[in-house]
Amino acid sequence: MGIPRIHPRAEIDSHAELAPDVEVGPFAVIERDVVIGAGTRILAGAHIRAHTTLGCGNLVRDHAVLGGNPQDLGYKGAVTMARIGDRNIFAEGVTIHRGTAAGSETVIGNDCFFMANSHAAHNCIVQDHVILANGAMLGGHSTVGERAFVSGNVAVHQNVRVGRLSMLSGVGSFTVDVPPFALVSDRNRLRGMNSVGVRRAGIRRDAVKGLRGAFRDLFQQRRNLTLAREELVARGGLGPEVLELLDFIESSVRGVCRMS
């Protein structure tokens, strides 16, 4: 078992719990009721706020702030949490905020990469292997599915869902849900299927073919989305990826990105 490597100029509350082999750099601040898992590195000037939990093997680079107070006028000082998994990277200037309502939390999964100055607001849920490029912003209560890629300076509105293996192109803004496996850009504009991301994820060729057909039938013909979905379901023989896409659309409250 290793011992924590704590720089003498770091500030760590006596009620914080650091697992063996944690590294804390100069001028880093770790507040009370923080739990940090083994092998995590907190670099110079980073700030881990109260009621934040980090799993194992995370890297928190210079001046990132994890578990900050929510930027929500409804927040009145209740105890809320930020729960972060394993092997994530938080680059310089990243901000992750806790939940707003008492007992609520912001949740970050495993193996995510938050590039410099990206932001996840209160009550966000970010699943595994998600990448937020520089300056990307997630509004409160938004959800990002596995292996989604949110490009630089993208703004995701509060309560929006981003489906897994989707790609949001740079400087886009999204106020409606982004379907899984989709490539989107500009303002809520669907470009088609995220072919590169789907291929890299190792999805089977027959499943990719089925997804291409589903995107064509649902979006390219610019038909009524509900009717197009019902026809696909009635046709039957759909693979799990197409069913995931259809279920996502059916459960959407805000609507989904469409081709213009």
Structure, explained:
- The protein has helices at residues 195-200, 205-220, 225-235, 240-251; strands at residues 5-6, 11-12, 17-18, 23-24, 29-30, 35-36, 41-42, 47-48, 52-54, 59-60, 65-68, 81-84, 89-90, 95-97, 105-108, 113-114, 119-120, 125-126, 131-132, 137-138, 143-144, 149-150, 155-156, 161-162, 167-168, 173-174, 182-185, 189-193.
- With 260 residues, the chain is α/β, with parallel strands linked by helices.
- It has 2 domains: 5-141, Hexapeptide repeat proteins (UDP N-Acetylglucosamine Acyltransferase, domain 1), CATH 2.160.10.10; 199-251, Udp N-acetylglucosamine O-acyltransferase, Domain 2 (Up-down Bundle).
- A hairpin with a 3-residue loop joins strand 27 (182-185) and strand 28 (189-193).
- The termini are far apart.
- The relative contact order is 0.08.
What is the SS-derived class?
alpha/beta
Distance between the termini: 58 Å
CATH level 3 topology of the largest domain: UDP N-Acetylglucosamine Acyltransferase, domain 1
Shape: elongated
* Strands, count: 28
- Summed up, the domain count is 2
Number of helices: 4
**Text of the CATH class of the largest domain:** Mainly Beta
Assigned CATH architecture of the largest domain: 3 Solenoid
- Mean pLDDT metric: 96
Radius of gyration: 20 Å
**Strand coverage percent:** 25-35%
Unreliable runs, pLDDT <50, ≥5 residues?
none
Q: Superfamily at the CATH H level of the largest domain?
A: Hexapeptide repeat proteins
Order of strands in the sheet with most strands = 1-4-7-10-13-16-19-22-25-27-28
User: Helix content range of the residues, please?
Assistant: 10-25%
